[in-house]
Amino acid sequence: MKLCLQFCWSIEQYETGANMFEIDHITEEFNKKSNSLYTILRSSRLAGSQRAPFLRQFLMRLNFNSFFETTARGVMNSGRLRPGTASTQL
């Protein structure tokens, strides 16, 4: 919520002078935190629990267009080399 308020404040200030660095920072932080939350909620420990009967339905609605799943997968793979790239860099 804090990031949303910062974003709104930045947009309001946009008319007087655009600070794209701040907006980019807010966007980056939002992506990190939302992907982290989605990954935690998606964990088998929580999603498979009988104590959270509506969690799977919530996750399905949250990820209706596969945005979070694709983004989370991209974040997890960003630190790894793709097959075949190591030999071309040598």
From TrEMBL:
Keyword Cytoplasm annotated: yes
Gene Ontology cellular-component annotations: microtubule
InterPro entries noted in UniProt: GCP_C (IPR040457), GCP_C_sf (IPR042241)
Alphabetized Gene3D superfamilies for the sequence: Gamma-tubulin complex, C-terminal domain
Domain Gamma tubulin complex component C-terminal span(s) in chain numbering: 2-68
GO molecular function: gamma-tubulin binding
UniProt keyword Protein transport present: no
Predominant location: cytoplasm
Keyword field: Cytoplasm, Cytoskeleton, Microtubule
One Pfam match: GCP_C_terminal
Family, as annotated: Belongs to the TUBGCP family.
Name the UniProt record assigns to this protein: Gamma tubulin complex component C-terminal domain-containing protein
